[in-house]
Specification:
Two copies of one chain form a homodimer. By secondary structure, chain A is α/β, with parallel strands linked by helices. Chain A has helices at about 5-15, 40-45, 45-55, 70-80, 90-100, 135-145, 200-215, 240-245, 255-265, 275-285, 300-305, 310-325, 375, 390-395, and strands at about 20-25, 30, 55-60, 105-115, 125, 155-160, 165-170, 225-235, 250-255, 270, 290-295, 335, 355-360, 380-385. Chain A has two domains: about 5-90 and about 235-395, Alkaline Phosphatase, subunit A; about 95-235, Alpha-Beta Plaits. The interface between A and B is medium-sized, with 44 and 26 residues. Chains A, B: Catalyzes the interconversion of 2-phosphoglycerate and 3-phosphoglycerate.
């Protein structure tokens, strides 16, 4: 997709009022079946969610498109009402968000992998033996010390984890038309950042020089003796959430990646809680001053990634128990959903449709308990794209004008 | 639609693994109601399909778009994961596929109709009285004998059926910017292939000359004294199925049209069985050497086209009985569906949504028996586009990488 015609249409209809919308993301909450015993949501005891479902609308959402598993970036952009294949930010920026590196508009970011090359300069290990975080930090310190950046350009090098690092160039007039250097296979030399269509980029020439310096600096290292760079990207200049939806947004999120995607669309970060109880309490507080609150709960995803079904069930039950404090703030519309599913059986994000609960005025009655993947299938929301949820919530909150006369 | 952004996105995420996907097409299997007695699937006794449904995902697919009835070409291209309004091949090529004429990249094909013109050259019958196949062959033989093609161009003329024939020009540098000559109404002369935007086409001039020759050759014929040509097209240069999905595909199809659409996307034809039992046996064999097998069963469509509901029910039951031999090969993902519905009450293809059954890992439990149009409506797949089925199957087979970080 090359433009976001749906989002542009809805944005053109947006009007301001004082109704308050809360988007509670139980990250990765959806699941597939577990050995015939059902999903985590089906197995969890969730009296508050079920009571809420009784008078709410239910449905399923498609994060990006059928069969497509989203990363956290695209998953949240969809939830924020941005077509994720159009508002597709480079990996460099997502890496920066993930470690809470504060990017500016003068920055170009890239994801780095340490790798191993042989005497001929051919890559023999694209991950440098998966070196430790400590080794990563040691080597970056050496590079920082010896590197000579060109005049007017600051270079930042930050550890992400293991063999992964972040490169940020800061300066005036930098561009991100820079070739990825990862040859994507061993036995080949790293690619040139200035090749083909990138030959015209002054920044690509800077990167070429820096990589040559790094290679010389690391020549005697036994494992991490070279770097591969990909996903060069500038901090995107997108319409902010406030402009797009005429909402006054606040983010309540305890983990860097989610604060990062919130900042990508210009949301103010008002609190950084991590527990279900604190998240609901902070979201309730934020609703006093904002017409939109994004609240993020990480542990339903983390337990899924860990393949720990009992822990995922426990985390769902924690959020269920915390819900009354959020409900007490009485948001006009409350969306409870996720950016994607994280089935413990897959230990990873998945492509499955995501359960959605929407408490709102003007419903066709309540869809009834329980709140789970199978029951959501027959709910009044139907199966829609994640990017359609904010517009739907805005409609129920009286925040969208009629289209046409 | 002008480009296939969904297909391109999913293709960019495709990775290879050894999981095997089987697509069993029961051509035209879907139906609408028959005199209050239900669809053919509802009336058929299908114990194996029903047992499979109990542990599979069900849903409905839209072949092209709501209300649009597909021909066999677009119907199958959708199933192969190609947006059929973008990957839209000319009628000339489909006619060639239908009679298994082996097109090369140097060929331009067109569909011919014999017609009748009067002394003024006006068309009086666009189908030449629906002449017989034998008459068609007799006349083509005369044309072949007397026609003088230009140097460097071979001309092929082949009987399709009744008044329909295939024209193929073979040579270097031929183009398909050639005007259709059918005036679409009687009382008018045939149109010129070189008119308007087609004036610049050297191949249109060749066609103009050939048609003039044919007119002279057939001048004394009482019925078929002229030809009308449409759907000029070259064999398309599309991404192959193997490139697009990183699958190693095999086709098991007994009828020329379906082998033809399989060849359009570069599939290898490994067997040409026509009975349900042979199709399932050959598909099972092919799964030993291929990561994707397309198996095509024609008779559920043919009996629909014949308006023969009892025969359609029998054919469904034949495939049901044959299924265990395919299941014994244990494909990792098995899709059972159709390219479109062919209701016996319509005696034709239709626009109705098509039942889908998918046996796969990572489901939300089984959707339960029976496998029919009404029960499929509430299945976990929902109602999706046919082009989304291969991506969904690939997701369940672990063949798609995450989108974004």
């Amino acid at each position: 997709m090359t433009h976001d015609s749906y989002g542009d249409l809805v944005s053109s209809l947006a009007i301001e009022n004082d109704k308050r919308i809360c988007l509670l993301v139980m990250d990765g909450v959806g699941d597939c079946d577990n050995d015939g015993k059902g999903t985590a949501l089906q197995q969890a005891r969730t009296p508050n969610l079920d009571t809420l479902a009784a008078t709410s609308a239910l449905g399923l959402s498609i994060p990006v498109d059928v069969g497509v598993t989203p990363g956290s970036g695209p998953g949240h952009l969809g939830l924020f009402g941005y077509e994720p294949t159009v508002y597709n930010v480079g990996r460099g920026v997502l890496s920066a968000l993930g470690i809470e590196f504060d990017l500016t508009p003068r920055d170009v970011a890239a994801r780095l992998n340490f790798c191993t090359i042989d005497a001929d300069g051919h890559v023999t290990d694209r991950r440098a033996g998966r070196i430790s975080d400590a080794e990563n930090k040691r080597i970056l310190a050496i590079i920082r010390q010896k590197l000579s950046p060109p005049a007017g350009v600051e270079v930042f090098l930050e550890t992400v984890a293991e063999y992964r690092a972040l490169l940020v160039l800061r300066g005036d007039g930098l561009d991100d038309n820079i070739g990825e250097t990862d040859p994507q296979a061993v036995g080949r030399p790293p690619l040139s950042p200035t090749r083909d269509a990138h030959a015209d980029s002054p920044t690509a020439k800077i990167v070429e020089d820096l990589i040559a310096q790094v290679r010389a600096i690391l020549a005697d290292e036994p494992q991490a003796n070279m770097i591969l760079a990909r996903g060069f990207a500038k901090f995107p200049n997108w319409p902010t959430f406030a402009e797009r939806w005429k909402l006054n947004p606040a983010a309540v999120a305890g983990y860097p990646m989610y604060r990062g995607v919130a900042r990508l669309v210009g949301m103010e970060i008002v609190a950084q809680p991590t527990t279900a109880a604190d998240i609901c309490a902070e979201a309730a507080k934020a609703l006093a001053h904002h017409t939109f609150v994004f609240a993020h709960f990480k542990y339903t995803d983390k337990t899924g990634e860990d393949g720990d079904l009992p822990a995922k069930i426990t985390r769902i039950e924690e959020m269920d128990a915390a819900l009354p404090s959020l409900l007490a703030a009485d948001p006009d519309v409350l969306l409870i959903t996720a950016d994607h599913c994280t089935p413990p059986s897959l230990k990873a994000h998945s492509w499955h449709t995501v359960p959605v609960l929407m408490k709102a005025p003007h419903l066709r009655g309540g869809d009834g308990a329980p709140f789970d993947e199978v029951h959501c299938r027959s709910g009044q929301i139907g199966t829609i794209y994640a990017k359609q949820l904010i517009p739907l919530a805005m409609a129920h909150a009286g925040k969208l004008e009629k289209f046409g006369a």
